[in-house]
Amino acid sequence: MQIGDVTLHSRFFLGTALYPSPAVLQQAIEASGTQVVTVGLKRQLSPCLGPNQGHAGGPANSPLIPGEFYQLIQRHGVRLLPNTAGCRTAREAVALAHMARELFGTHWIKLEVVGDEHTLQPDPWELLQAAGELVQAGFEVFPYCTDDLVSCQRLLDAGCRILMPWGAPIGSGQGLINPWALRTLRERLPGVPLVVDAGIGSPAHAVQAMELGFDAVLLNSAVAQAHDPVSMARAFGLAIQAGRLGWQAGVMAPQSMARASTPVTGRPFLL
Q: Residue 259: inside a domain, yes or no?
């Protein structure tokens, strides 16, 4: 998978929030095979910790400061994708993106500008404004957007080179609630890297996204909040590989009627 001048061999983008401990996060990263992890700077200063968890060597509830988190990520040789989760305006998101670039030394930014508190649906107008400003400032913008084709086209017009349409509302685990819209995006934007982001709840959902021809999957809650996050990370990694291979090989089209797999020639033959 090519993003700008960066080649990725894994199509699994993994979030770092809500894990029971930094140790479990590290094991999940290793098990997943991911090369890109996300971190939300606004939502929480300790993005890899769940409630009442302290980091090694610190008391309970003591957060991992950004420098410590960055060191944890660097140990695994993965790329960091900071995100603007929690932002409600373009101005707020742009300011946070510049802070992330200064803090982590990366021009990659996952751009989130939420417009609705209940669904956490992106605000298409504020998102577009922020995307245009950040592209002009030299960022590689990964916009979290809906599956609306026209909105996605406008983001491309603003200079985005990759899109991250949702599968379902963040953290809902509903999977792909509108496969038709996602299929339309893939067909109408054939040369654009597309990453299904949000709503993925099981490895089967990841397979479905990849079999539609999407380039990657980003998820967090389905791994971090699993009974066994490490095993679930491994399961998703394998599912994403399987789905991609299935798409490349050519998934069988569904038929309305039965079709015999063994043809009848009309004459018997002997072995």
A: no
